[in-house]
């Protein structure tokens, strides 16, 4: 089982800590005292080249490999082909998982030709696509790469922030373990 909980004693009472999901990422589960919190969104941040995308891919890869938990990777920047190629340099065969229906890469990157923003910005269509993929693939883990890219595409930061919160709330309702970078 991939979930763990931490129990401590305080004044003779048994306290149960935050339930965690193991990532099986070397060293991470140790320093995070068991992995990532369940039923919460985890945000991984860092500058370009620090390994955020690698972390997100490995979170999904290990979930499939060690716990048979299908996953969804939502990309706003890199193409699915590039993600698959980059992962293969670590010996991770994402294409096999895609072919087996254990992994789905949802390409949410903007049109390279550019587009004019008309009307109000919202993530309703994306939320529906993610929820559909979660149901179809019975996904337990979702990685979104990257929230920063969404903010860079649109000028109204407050509106984007609201939509990200709405996305997180909807995914929490379906029980997905969400990693945002």
Automatic annotation (TrEMBL):
Which InterPro entries does this UniProt record tie to the protein? Answer: Circadian_clock_KaiC-rel, KaiC-like_dom, KaiC_dom, P-loop_NTPase
| Name of a matching Pfam family | ATPase
Claim: Lipoprotein is one of the keywords in the record: no
GO molecular function terms attached to this record: ATP binding; protein serine/threonine kinase activity
Domain of life per record? Bacteria
**What does the record give as EC number?**
2.7.11.1
| Top EC class of this enzyme | transferase
Instruction: Enumerate the UniProt keywords alphabetically.
Output: Kinase, Transferase
Task: Give start and end of each KaiC domain.
Answer: 19-181
UniProt keyword annotation of Ribonucleoprotein present? no
Where would one find the signal peptide in this protein? none
- The entry's protein name is Circadian clock protein kinase KaiC
Taxonomic path: Bacteria, Bacillati, Cyanobacteriota, Cyanophyceae, Oscillatoriophycideae
């Amino acid at each position: 089982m991939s979930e763990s909980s931490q129990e401590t004693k305080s004044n003779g009472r048994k306290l149960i800590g935050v339930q965690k999901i193991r990532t099986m990422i070397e060293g991470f589960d140790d320093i995070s005292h068991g992995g990532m919190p369940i039923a919460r969104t985890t945000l991984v941040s860092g500058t370009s080249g620090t390994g955020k995308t690698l972390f997100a891919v490995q979170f999904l890869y290990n979930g499939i490999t060690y716990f048979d938990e299908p996953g969804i990777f939502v990309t706003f920047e890199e193409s699915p082909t590039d993600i698959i190629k980059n992962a293969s340099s670590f010996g991770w065969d994402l294409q096999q998982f895609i072919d087996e229906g254990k992994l789905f890469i949802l390409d949410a990157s903007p049109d390279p030709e550019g587009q004019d923003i008309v009307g109000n910005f919202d993530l309703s269509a994306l939320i529906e696509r993610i929820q559909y993929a979660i149901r179809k693939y019975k996904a337990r883990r979702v990685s979104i790469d990257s929230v920063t890219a969404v903010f860079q595409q649109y000028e109204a930061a407050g509106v984007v922030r609201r939509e990200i919160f709405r996305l997180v709330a909807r995914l929490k309702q379906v029980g997905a373990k969400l990693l945002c970078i």
